[in-house]
Each structure stands twice: as structure tokens, then as C-alpha cells.
Amino acid sequence: METLFTTARRAVFRLAEVGARASALYHRARLLGAEHLPSRGPVLLVGNHGVWGYETPAFFHLLHQATGRYPLGLAERGFFRIPLIRTVLPWLGGVEGTRENALESLRQGHLVVCYPGGAWETFKRSEGRYTLRWERTLGFVRLAARAGVPIVPFAGFGVDDTFFYPSDEERWCVRISEQEKYRMPVVMGLGPLPLPVRITFAVGEPHEPPPENAPEHRLQDFRDLVAASVRRLLLRACHA
């Protein structure tokens, strides 16, 4: 039984790798600033999320190509309440986004990807395209400070253009929870496929986090600094 489970997990991972490579090719995806990605040691990548999180496999594929490392992604905790997703996500490098799990991943020396906007950005409406829905989030700042690891900002352009919204988009939504952030827009592509737009990811220089015992205002300033870096990288990716 153990062997069968391991075989199934390996098969799912290899299939996902093929899908990620195909997605990157389909979107002519490219990665700028790869020199800012360390080849070893813990690091926290922080950036924007595209609609439905569709761009993630292509991004992870490019990260692996550039560094030889398989990144781990901090996934929205609500998704781990869904049985099948709860089982499969860890097979694909998804980690339930608790502080404990994130700290352990960094302590083990992994390259960890964090989307502070979470479901707010994944299930955005059309007017929210390329806006950071980080609200007053400080979780990723506290995580970096606690672990003592740098934050490397990144941005993806094209990630909110892979699908288009119906004209009556407020009507075409599906709720998977009572929480407003889980109100998913029903988006459309090119038949069964997403639109073949080019996706460009840009990675910036690392930011050293404040000390763990830093006052609240300093943590907020650092969050705003990272957000500003992501916005600048969006412009770079847009015009590249």
C-alpha cells in the first residue's frame, strides 16, 4: 500500500511538471532578474497573484529552471478544507499557509513563495486586475522577521489577462464559503483554453527584514516597502 501511494504521488507530480512546462510554453513565459534568486538557503519570495492562481505552475517551472530548486508555495488555508485538494496540493509543493508550516519550511532551507493577497487576489473581479489586495497583512513580514530570512519581491504581468470576465460578472460568481473572499468569478478563455497572452515574471533585489522584536510601525513600513517593490516590478515586466 505504501508503494502504491508513493507511485501515485510521483505520477501526479510528473504529470504536473509536464502541465507546468506546457503552460510556460503556451504563454511564452519568461523570468527576469533570476540573478536575485539564491541557489541555496532559505528565502521568501513575495508577490502578486493572478486570477484563479492559474500562473503558479508556469512560475514554479521557471523558478526550477533558473535555480534547480523546487519551490514550496504557501497556499490559502481554506483550500485545505477540501478533501481532494488537501491531499494533492502537498504532492505539488503546496504547503498549508500557517505560520508554523512556513517557519518549518524556511528552517529546512526551502525557497518559499508567498502571495499575501491570497484568495482576495485569486478570485478578484475585473476592476481588481493588477492591484495588491494585501489589506493590512503583516503575516509575511512577521514570518521573515521570525525566520531571519530575506524577502525577494516578484511580480507577474499577463497573469490577470489569461481569462476575461463576462459583462455581468457580479452575477456569474460561485460561492464556496460564506466568506466574501471565496466568492469566485466565473471567467472565460479561448474555448477550453486560457487566452494565449504572454506572461512575464520579474524578480527584484532582496530586502532584509526588520528584527523580530521591531515595533508595529516598522513592520508596516517594511510591508509597504515590499509592496512598492512589487508594483515597480509590475511596471518592469509590463514594459519588458
Distance between the termini: 50 Å
Give the CA-based shape: globular
Structural class: alpha/beta
Beta content comes to: 15-25%
Arithmetic mean pLDDT: 89
Uncertain spans: none
The largest beta-sheet arranges its strands as 1-9-6-2-5-3-4
Major sheet description: 7 strands, mixed
H/E series: HEEHEHEHEHHEEEEH
Number of helices: 7
Give the total of beta strands.
Answer: 9
Gyration radius, to the nearest Å? Answer: 18 Å
Helix content: 25-40%
Give a description of the structure.
This protein is of the alpha/beta class. The chain has helices at residues 2-26, 56-67, 83-88, 99-107, 118-122, 139-147, 216-239, and strands spanning 30-32, 43-47, 72-75, 94-96, 111-114, 151-157, 173-175, 183-185, 200-203. The protein has a seven-stranded mixed beta sheet, sandwiched between helices. A two-stranded antiparallel ribbon has the order 7-8.
List the helices and strands and how they pair.
Blueprint: H1 2-26, E1 30-32, E2 43-47, H2 56-67, E3 72-75, H3 83-88, E4 94-96, H4 99-107, E5 111-114, H5 118-122, H6 139-147, E6 151-157, E7 173-175, E8 183-185, E9 200-203, H7 216-239
Parallel strand pairs: 1-9, 2-5, 2-6, 3-4, 3-5
Antiparallel strand pairs: 6-9, 7-8
Helix pairs in contact: 1-2, 4-6
